[in-house]
Amino acid sequence: MRNGCPENASLKEIVVRNRVVRLMMAVVLVCAAVPAVAQLSPEAQQAIAWGKDAAQKKNYELAISFFKMAQAAAPNAPEIYGYLGLTESKISGRELRAIAWYGAYLAANPRAGNAAAVNNAIAELMKGSENNISMLMKTWDTAAANMPNPADHGTHTIGYQRDFCWMNLGMWYSAYGNIEDARRIANGIPNPELAGPVLVEIINAQLNAGDRAGAKRTLKSIRDASSRASAQDSLAHPPQVHKNDEGTTGAALSDWTQLFVAGMTPGLDGEMFTDLTASMRPSASDRADLLKNGFSEPWIMVGQLSYVANNLGSMQKKIKRMLKVQAAHRVKQRKSI
Predict the structure, then answer these.
(1) Which residue among 137, 194, 199, 289 is least crowded, i.e. fewest CB within 10 A of its CB?
(2) Count helices and strands in the chain by DSSP H and E runs
(3) Domains, in order of start, for the chain
(4) From CA 121, how far away is CA 152, in angstroms rounded?
(5) How far is CA 168 from the centre of its chain?
(6) Over the stretch 35-58, which tens digit does the pLDDT of each residue have?
(7) Residue 75 in this model has a pLDDT that exceeds 70
């Protein structure tokens, strides 16, 4: 350590691992504008030392707990957020947590000389998160395909319930911008009332991407009157980007640290952000309760995967918006110098 910063402007190579890819990257953390350890309390300095020792022994969970102790003792020290981001990046499936800590580092040190290197690390971590979601969606897709598929798909039948689950999957694909798979799902749903909402979401995704011609072509494939009316309304009144509190969140340190606090939706301390593989299956007690109440294994699996995918995808989108705001804020600050 030199002046409370990683040695000689370079940290060890970050290894981002998940079940789909293994990404290698070098993260350079420059000591520009980072408070010296001497400015930190003895408690914070000791916790950092313990955290570094645990990280060197690859006991990353323990290292994180020590760095969080240091954070509590010195909540405005950028150095600590950098260590948290680096350590979280060592654990498979925690890419979004690592990104959030790096976002906190840049918020606490907005004029950091190493901002470009940190943003390069964030970009690599985001690729890992994208791969996590891709793996999750393939699992969800397969689980939906394994659901009972009787001949009768009328209202209140098992066939209708299957189509409803496919509709949710297709709408998620659309919201995430995967129009090809969303269209595949819509084409495979025999009930027009359930295929229609997926096609409406595809149209919204196309309009958001500026593909009005494609949206008009999709409209022609909608067979359900209600969905057609909804799609026509979207074409007549294209989605507008509204400036709101969420749209401007990302520049302040508290914006990033609050992501770890559970609120109406799970924060980054939720299981899908700390152990993605485990979160893809319901707990033994939840599974037992669902089976007792008449839910079969395929329905339980699809419901769990839907829950995880929606929370993981929503958090990723939020973090992407926050990173965009943070980058714009940093450009604005540079211009003001």
Answers:
(1) 289
(2) 15, 2
(3) 7-126 (1.25.40.10), 132-336 (no CATH)
(4) 51
(5) 19
(6) 444 489 999 999 999 999 999 999
(7) yes
Instruction: Provide the Cα torsion 61, 266, 263, 198; round to 10°.
Output: 160
Q: What is the DSSP string of 106-121?
A: HHHSTT-TTHHHHHHH
Cα–Cα distance between 257 and 252 in angstroms, integer? 9
> Helix axis angle, 158-175 relative to 297-336, nearest 10°?
10
pLDDT digits (tens, 9 = 90+) for 26-35: 344 433 334 4
Q: Which of 265, 211, 203, 205 shows the shortest CA–CA distance to 229?
A: 203
AA letter at 65: S
* DSSP string covering 299-320: HHHHHHHHHHHHHHHHHHHHHH
Tell me the C-alpha distance between 201 and 68, whole Å.
Answer: 41
**How far from 267 is each of 71, 181, 193, 216, 312, CA to CA, in Å?**
18, 28, 34, 38, 10
| H-run or E-run covering 50 | helix 42-56
Say how far residue 250 (Cα) sits from the centre of its chain. 15
Q: DSSP letters of 21-41? A: -EEEE------TTPPPGGGS-
> Residue 15 belongs to what H/E stretch?
strand 14-17
